Amino acid sequence: VQLQAFGGGLVQPGGSLRLSCAASGFTLGHYAIGWFRQAPGKEREWVSFISSSAGITRYADPVKGRFTISRDNAKNTLYLQMNNLKPEDTAIYYCATRLESQIISSAIREQRMYDSWGQGTQVTVSS
To answer: In angstroms, rounded to a whole number, what is the distance separating the alpha carbons of residues 93 and 27?
Structure first.
């Protein structure tokens, strides 16, 4: 089971980036996915969630209306479209998975809910 996040980079405020999270060694379509981020000097925080079928999506308040989570199970890949980026979005972004049947809906914002993590991808929003 391996996840690899990529697509980060340096972008100016107001710009956009699309992060991807590619899965290998397992069928991503059976798994729910969470995106988390960790800014310098801060704890890792939950950003977004998507169920295995993409029927359920959730967003943290700071990114609601600006970020969109999606998935292409045929490509075994997850996406996070980030628009209108702000300097406070600067962080390392991580994707994480848990088998859909094991997801507890009240805990999707908690790191302990996820048992497989990808390496992070750096997003820097700066002029």
So the answer is: 22
